[in-house]
């Protein structure tokens, strides 16, 4: 079901005490007959199953009933009472409920006329969002017109579209605005739906900052029409990075970034792209252990301690493999190198061995639930402040420590 939500304002009257009329011009050069209320033009164009008209007690309800739409001779007493109430700015919901069915029968759409507050404070503004949400069913398709009303109402209506998508899982397909041009007397009609895609991008950035999964950018890019040679490798990279396969993720990310550089991207994506790429800057690190250390630091920033510990531990092992020129995907060779490194630093002792032992015990604890016998590990696991201090210290020294040389490790 398609629902059109529109706002009824109170436009100025001319010298003849009539509301100003405007020809609305759509992008296909379809120009309407002179109208005061843009909602009627949209109703004829979209033909929604439900038309919801929102207005305050002082909106131009008199014109809605007696202006652009001809109701003939029906309900004359109620219409006369509405005219009087409209002049006073005292239109009631009961009056609108009485007249709405006559508009419905004339337009072949269910018409709901709804009184809203003036939205002069936060309480009234939140009430508007609630009213709009109450009018929309779960999962319905919604188009929104923000042309009329007080200047702050369009902003609130845009916020309501985001609210509807979250609480009602509504599909907000269009946001319309008829912009009156005093030079021509016409009103070009603008589609503001791109603002929703921009809001989606901001939400995706927030989601990424929370959990580090840049796969959230894939549906955003797809919805904006970005080509598969960008979205598909980006999706694969997100998967690989999620399972700590940094090498495979790096290759796919480079494919996606190369395709981005060679493509003309939609405006909303071009606006967000520098910020997205900034969050993926770890791919520019030259060596894999540096990428892993970078990702560990990013995880720590968002309080993802599990991934911080896992990446930090992998950083140490990857560097050992690089020193020994062992492929990190060779599990047997990798494990053999790790054991030889552990034996070597244990013989030397000192801070490097203490840090390695601490990191290994933390990794075993968070990955397997095994309890280490180091008091510092238990303190870290029971106190977030201590955990952060321990991890910050370990990350500052990983890759900087004086590892035993290649011959010592190989011995």
Could you tell me how far the N terminus lies from the C terminus, measured between alpha carbons in angstroms? 73 Å
**Main sheet: strand order:** 2-7-6-5-1-3-4
Radius of gyration: 31 Å
Note poorly predicted spans: none
By CATH reckoning, the class of the largest domain would read: Alpha Beta
Percent range for β-strand residues:
5-15%
Oligomer: single chain
> What is the H-and-E element order?
EEHEHHHEHEHEEHHHHHHHHHHHH
CATH architectural category of the largest domain: 3-Layer(aba) Sandwich
What is the CATH topology of the largest domain? Rossmann fold
CATH superfamily of the largest domain: SSO1389-like
Descriptive notes:
This protein is an alpha/beta fold. It folds into three domains: 191 residues, SSO1389-like (Rossmann fold, 3-Layer(aba) Sandwich); 86 residues; 123 residues, no CATH class. It is 58% helix and 10% strand. The protein has 18 helices and seven strands. A seven-stranded mixed sheet has the order 2-7-6-5-1-3-4, with helices on both faces. Helix 12 runs antiparallel to helix 17 and helix 13 packs parallel to helix 17. The longest helix has 20 residues. The mean pLDDT is 87.
Main attributes of the structure:
411 residues, alpha/beta, Rossmann fold, 18 helices, 7 strands
In short:
The protein has helices at residues 38-46, 61-66, 76-88, 93-107, 122-135, 153-167, 194-211, 217-223, 228-242, 246-261, 267-279, 288-301, 305-324, 331-348, 351-368, 375-382, 384-397, 406-410; strands at residues 2-7, 23-25, 50-55, 110-115, 141-145, 171-178, 186-191.
């Amino acid at each position: 079901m398609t629902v059109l939500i529109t706002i009824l304002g109170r436009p100025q009257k001319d010298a003849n005490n009539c509301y100003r009329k405007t020809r609305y011009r759509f992008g296909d050069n379809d120009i309407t007959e002179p109208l005061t209320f843009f909602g009627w033009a949209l109703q004829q164009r979209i033909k929604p199953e439900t038309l919801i008209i929102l207005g305050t007690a002082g909106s131009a309800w008199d014109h809605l009933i007696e202006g652009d739409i001809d109701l003939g001779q029906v309900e004359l007493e109620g219409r006369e009472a509405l005219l009087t109430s409209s002049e006073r700015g005292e239109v009631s919901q009961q009056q609108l409920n009485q007249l709405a069915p006559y508009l419905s029968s004339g337009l072949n759409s269910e018409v709901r006329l709804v009184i809203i507050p003036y939205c002069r404070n936060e309480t009234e503004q939140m009430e508007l969002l609630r009213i709009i949400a109450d009018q929309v069913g779960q999962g319905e398709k919604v188009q929104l017109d923000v042309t009329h009303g007080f200047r702050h109402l369009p902003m609130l209506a845009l916020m309501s579209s985001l609210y509807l998508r979250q609480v009602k899982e509504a599909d907000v397909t269009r946001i319309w605005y008829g912009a009156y041009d005093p030079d021509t007397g016409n009103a070009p009609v603008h589609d503001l739906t791109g603002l929703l895609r921009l809001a989606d991008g901001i939400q995706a950035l927030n989601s990424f900052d929370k959990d580090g999964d840049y796969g959230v950018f894939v549906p955003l890019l797809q919805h904006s029409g970005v080509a598969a040679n960008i979205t598909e490798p980006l999706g694969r990279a997100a998967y690989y990075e999620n399972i700590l396969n940094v090498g495979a993720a790096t290759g796919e990310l480079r494919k996606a970034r190369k395709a981005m550089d060679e493509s003309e991207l939609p405006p909303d994506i071009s606006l967000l792209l520098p910020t997205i790429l900034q969050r993926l800057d770890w791919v520019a690190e030259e060596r894999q252990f540096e990428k892993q250390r970078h990702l560990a630091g990013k995880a720590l920033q968002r309080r993802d301690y599990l991934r911080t510990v896992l990446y930090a531990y992998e950083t140490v092992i990857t560097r050992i493999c690089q020193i020994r020129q062992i492929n990190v995907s060779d599990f047997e060779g990798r494990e053999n190198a790790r054991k030889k490194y552990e034996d070597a630093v244990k013989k030397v002792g000192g801070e490097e061995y203490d840090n390695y032992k601490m990191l290994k015990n933390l990794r075993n604890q968070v990955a397997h639930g095994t309890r280490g016998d180091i008091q510092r590990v238990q303190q870290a696991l029971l106190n977030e402040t201590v955990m952060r201090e321990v991890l910050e210290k370990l990350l500052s020294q990983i890759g900087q420590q004086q590892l035993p040389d290649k011959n010592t490790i190989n011995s």
